[in-house]
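Now read the record:
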Amino acid sequence: MILLDIGNTHTRIAQSDGAKIRILRTLATAELSADDLPRGERIAAASVVPRAAERLAGRGVEFVTAENCGGLIDFSAVDAAALGADRAANAIAAAEFYELPVLVIDCGSAITCELVDERRRFLGGAIAPGRMLQRRALHTGTAQLPEIALAETPPDGLGQTTAEAISLGVDAGAVGMVREFARIMGKSVKLRTMVLAGGDAKFFAAAFPDWELAPEDFTLQGVRLAAEKRFF
């Protein structure tokens, strides 16, 4: 089975053989087309980009959503129709592979939280701009601030140049934001596991060394589980 994780910035195309997933290719979502998909296999996808999904029309792609995931997670506490497919897939993977209750922090273009309790109920979460999106907003929304590259580790010191000040403001702020998310989510349930996922997860792992670092195929595993249960 072919699996797609269609994100705002990048799309990952993978092949699954049961629980074993091999990532075949990563490309810019803006460039994704039906020609990029292998032929002759069933295809399941989680997409947060409607236009990208439209470009795959005619290829028989089954799109995973919170409403059609085969009852793997109880989404009745939230507006399932509006819930991003990536967040639904994260919740499914978290409940399958980690001790519950679990909080997933997915760090990418957006930073999202997915909270799943011991009864496999999705209780809600949070959505905020990721580090690169915050940098870009500062650059495009002001006259003089540059767009600076992502730092690999959280800043530890005063921002004595404009670039350092942006890094401190965005990166230290992002760490504090994630810490506050965890505090608020922990009011609802006694968390047993906290998981960092997504392309920027390693940055946050330096600030939260006791949290679990999800494998690269984490969201794809959620897509796989939903597809096997619901579609195939």
Notes: The CA atoms of residues 67 and 81 lie 7 Å apart. The mean pLDDT is 95. The chain has six helices and ten strands.
